[in-house]
Write a structure and sequence with these properties.
Porin, 778 residues, 32% strand, seven-stranded parallel beta sheet, single chain, alpha+beta, twelve-stranded antiparallel beta sheet, Rossmann fold
């Protein structure tokens, strides 16, 4: 066993530049939330599911046996509305109103907006073409109003008094049309009503979604041709308006498929088959939707912004009465249509509560508003950045297509359920992995969001992170939907751990080995004299600038070759090209001069980084970085009162290059580093070293970013361009005290205490550390 030789007289040591640790594992990029900070996608999912479970237990979702009038809306669970509401609350805060900012038109009999479930909702009513308002007296003892029931399924407020609307925070515009019992079939207003003009009025109001819960019974779309539909004097003009030709983002129409399946019919009618249980001996086989929504199957101009809805029962199977999707499968979806809770006018029985809810509603008319409200939720969640056509496409793509909902038609849809059962939990969740496109359209090939990140070198401090505060970057799923991430959350920092500092503290001083020449960046050999003329050495896995050392310290362990001369000149070349590709490689050279017996010295050098800029590493969509660094340094040594004093100062200039990523430009960067050290031998075995230093720091520089931040018209990626200051807001200053004892148990003991002001060049409080290490050699 050989103990370490005693410590040699102090020589200038370059300012510390903390050695970068091994490449950091990329941390999951995070979604910014209202109350939980920045969380990973996995954590977001866990938070959503936890909150969804709480909401699902709420009486307004499932109902409660403790209060007879707290009936709830069980249909919401079937289509995972609790998950969508929870995702909105986590993303935008508990005060988020589902559907907020979305305008929904409702074409129906009217609405009792004074109902206690609707009184606080944002509802207005327009009486088209002179139609009258509904009155309580227009209805029988049950007070049933089709329009009030339909509206309440979407807009019922969270007032703890009944049930919850699927998108209760949306803005609702109710337009009366002649389908209510208050307008008899022979009323001139009904017969003179111009439906095409009505659709124009609704669309002129600027609504995003139109719920049209009506259809014409027995008009199965499979029995109509496109020409017959277009040329019909009755409904041709209506479909022409609904087509919204030339409108860049047409409003979405949501229609019921119809309730004709199993209804009695007369022999000879289309889709009418013998049925012994029918009152006529025949009943309909409603294998496709009725006119209205069903027209989407025949008219391409309606496709993409028209949705037709079939009803499922409480067990998830097709409701007995519901028309099937049939040939309209690509534009058809299933939603609950039995056991639906809806609002009605107050009852008039003596002593009865003036407000009631109506339970047990069944029909595709009540499945449709669940889909309309679901689209409003989606539009809210995605901040309105998905076009209406894209919302419809996503609604279909994320529907449950498993089991009974699986495709059985050549067009990839189900003959009964079309695209499947609506699933709003899936609709607001990423489909497949998220990517970050550099340019082009959302959903195009790009870089993985999971691996897209920046890892800062220590010289950057908090400058870039501060400049990025409050900004977002969008990742897009396989369907082109944007999901927003906190931009500072994908920026990491590479700093040495306590373990790395301890290894540095106890590392042997290889400069003491025979054959090594004097290095200005390291402690000299025992004679403290420049190397003789013509001397040279090769080092393996050595730091070009010692344990630290400004810009050269960025290289880490390298292969070095050093040449010395008797005049005090020393030249060195070094490289880390032996590293595996992708880990970053550096190559550099330096020239140092210190006159024989002199007390000062100078150095200049060059360092090339092939995959980083001052230790800044880019991954994924941030592209590729490289840099050429030039540096110059000055050092001086003297002795005062038994203290050996050394000063080392360095200035650097970095010229970066960027390629193929979200960083448009990096300016030239200037850097600095400084160290003042004092060393005193206390006894023959003990020595004390004090140092005051500023690690490598960027003094000036900026970066220009062009980041994807959302969707633009037509599905193109919307970018934001901005400049970010790279200089840290603060300056790290370290005060270090190190005590060394030689010959302790055959080795060397070193104890180091350090106080750091603004550690990491960040505007944070001070940090303190205490390290101790003992080393020996065998």
């Amino acid at each position: 066993m050989q103990a370490q030789p005693p410590e040699q007289p102090l020589q200038p040591e370059p300012p510390q530049s903390p050695q970068p640790p091994p490449s950091l594992q990329p941390t999951p990029n995070c979604l910014e939330t209202a109350n939980h900070g920045c969380v990973s996608l996995e954590e977001f999912g866990r938070l959503r599911d936890s909150l969804a479970a709480v909401r699902l237990a709420d009486g307004e979702f499932r109902g409660s046996s403790s209060r007879s009038n707290l009936l709830g809306q069980r249909a919401l669970e079937t289509v995972n509305v609790h998950q969508a509401h929870a995702a909105l609350a986590i993303k935008y805060g508990a005060a988020a109103k589902p559907g907020d900012g979305v305008r929904v038109g409702i074409m129906d009999s009217g609405v009792d907006s004074d109902h206690h479930e609707l009184a606080d909702a944002d509802i207005s009513e327009t009486f088209l073409q002179g139609l009258p308002d509904e009155r309580r007296a227009d209805y029988g003892a049950d007070g049933y109003s089709h329009g009030t029931a339909v509206t309440s399924i979407m807009a019922a407020q969270p007032n703890r008094a009944g049930f919850l609307g699927i998108a209760w925070g949306a803005t609702y515009r109710v337009f009366t049309v002649p389908i209510g019992a208050h307008i008899p079939g022979d009323d001139p207003l009904r017969n003179a009503f111009e439906w095409d003009a009505a659709y124009r009025s609704v669309l002129a109001s600027g609504v995003d979604i139109v719920n049209a819960s009506y259809s014409t019974g027995g008009t199965f779309i499979e029995n109509f041709t496109p020409d017959r539909l277009r040329n019909s004097a009755s409904f041709g003009p209506e479909f022409d308006v609904i087509a919204q030709r030339g409108v860049p983002d047409p409003a979405i129409f949501v229609w019921p498929a119809g309730n004709d399946h199993g209804d009695p019919c007369d022999e000879g009618e289309r889709n009418c088959f013998a049925d012994d249980l029918s009152s006529t001996g025949f009943s309909y086989r409603a294998t496709s939707p009725n006119l209205g929504g069903g027209a989407v199957a025949r008219l391409p101009e309606l496709q993409g912004h028209n949705v037709v809805v079939v009803a499922v029962d409480q067990g998830g199977g097709i409701a007995d009465f519901s028309n099937r999707c049939g040939i309209a499968g690509p534009w058809c979806i299933a939603a609950p249509g039995t056991g639906i809770t809806g609002a009605e006018f107050g009852r008039t029985a003596p002593g009865a509560n003036s407000f009631f809810v109506l339970v047990g509603l069944s029909g595709t008319s009540y499945a449709s508003p669940l889909v309309s409200g679901g689209l409003a939720l989606m539009k809210h969640f995605f901040r309105g950045e998905l076009s209406n056509r894209d919302l419809v496409s996503r609604l279909f793509e994320t529907a449950d297509k498993s089991g009974r909902y699986a495709a059985d038609r050549a067009d990839g849809t189900s003959s009964i359920y079309g695209q499947g059962l609506m699933d709003l939990g899936a609709a607001v969740s990423p489909v497949d992995s998220l990517t970050v496109p550099i340019a082009g359209r959302a959903g195009n090939a790009g870089h993985s969001m999971q691996t897209t990140r920046l890892t800062l070198g220590p010289a950057f401090g908090d400058g870039l992170v501060h400049s990025l505060a409050g900004r977002e970057i969008a990742g897009f799923d396989a369907l082109g939907a944007p999901f927003w991430f906190d931009l500072p959350g994908i920026v990491g920092t590479s700093r040495p751990s306590a373990a790395a500092r301890l290894r540095s503290l106890v590392a042997p001083d290889r400069e003491q080995d025979p054959g090594h020449v004097h290095r200005m960046h390291r402690k000299p050999a025992s004679d403290a004299r420049p190397a003789p003329p013509g001397s040279w050495s090769i080092g393996l896995h050595q730091h070009p600038a010692g344990a630290g050392g400004g810009l050269p310290g960025l290289a880490g362990p390298a292969i070095t070759m050093t040449f010395g001369s008797g005049s005090g000149l020393e030249s060195r070349v070094f490289t880390t090209a032996y590293r595996a590709r992708g880990l970053g490689r550096e190559t550099g050279a330096s020239l140092a001069w210190r006159p024989r017996g002199g007390s000062f010295g100078l150095r200049v050098g060059w360092l090339a980084e092939d995959a980083s800029v001052l230790g800044l590493e880019a991954r994924g969509a941030f592209g590729r970085l490289a840099a050429d660094n030039l540096f110059t340094g000055f050092e001086a040594v003297t002795e005062i009162g038994g203290w050996q004093l050394a000063l080392d100062a360095e200035a650097g200039l970095t010229r970066p290059s960027v390629e193929g990523g979200l960083i448009d430009d990096l300016s030239s960067l200037t850097t600095s580093a400084l160290s003042l050290r004092g060393h005193r031998r206390l006894t023959g075995r003990d020595a004390l070293t004090l140092s005051l230093s500023q690690p490598l720091r960027i003094e000036r520089g900026s970066a220009k970013f062009r980041l994807p931040v959302g969707r633009a018209g037509g599905g193109d990626v919307r970018h934001a361009t901005f400049s970010a200051d790279l200089a840290p807001r603060s300056r790290q200053v370290d005060l270090t005290v190190r005590w060394r004892r030689d010959g302790l148990l055959g080795g060397v003991l070193q104890v180091e205490a350090e106080a750091s002001r603004h550690p990491g060049h960040a505007a944070t409080g001070p940090a303190f550390s205490l390290l101790a290490g003992w080393r020996t050699e065998f």
